[in-house]
Amino acid sequence: MNRSTVKLSYLSAAVLFFLLTVHSTVAQENRPKSESTSESVVKSEEEWRGCLTPEEFRILREKGTEMAFTGKYNKHNEKGVYTCAGCGAELFSSETKYDSGSGWPSFWKPISDEKVDTETDNSLFMKRTEILCSRCGGHLGHMFEDGPRPTGLRYCVNSVSLGFEPQEVEVETVSKEKEDSK
Ligand SMILES: [Zn+2]
What we know:
This protein is about 35% helix and about 20% strand.
C-alpha cells in the first residue's frame, strides 16, 4: 500500500462514517413526525397561551363555556368535518350534527369513540359528563343523554373549541358554478 492509497482509504472511511451519521440523524428526525398524527399533543400552559386566542384558551384549557346562541357553528349546516381548535384532530362529522335547540353545536356521536374522552364533571352543583379532545385534552363541552336515535346522546360542543374543514364536494360545486358562468 503506498501513501496515496492509505489516504484514499482513510478518506472513504470518513465519507462512509459521515453518510451513516447523516442517515441515522434523518431517520431519527422523521420518526416522531410520522407518528405525530395519532400521538397525543402535550403543551405547557404558556405554549397554549401562545398558540390560542384568549377565548380559545379560556374554553379549551380552562373549561369555560361560550354564551348560548353566539357560536359560529351553532347554525352551521355545511358538509364537512369539525376539528379540534387546539390540535386539529378530526372530531365530528356534519352527518351527525343536528339542531338541539340548546344554542350550541350538537352531535349525536363523534367520528370515532377514541377521538373524544369523557370525564365526570361535578362543578356548578351538577353531575355532568365532560367531553375532551383525546389528542390534546382540550375541553370541548358536555355530553347528555337526551340526544336523538340511534345513540340517544347529545355531544354539546362549544364552537370556539372547533374548526371546520368543508368536504371536497363543496369545492366541486364551486368550480362547476364557475364553468357555468363562463
Ligand atoms: Zn385537540
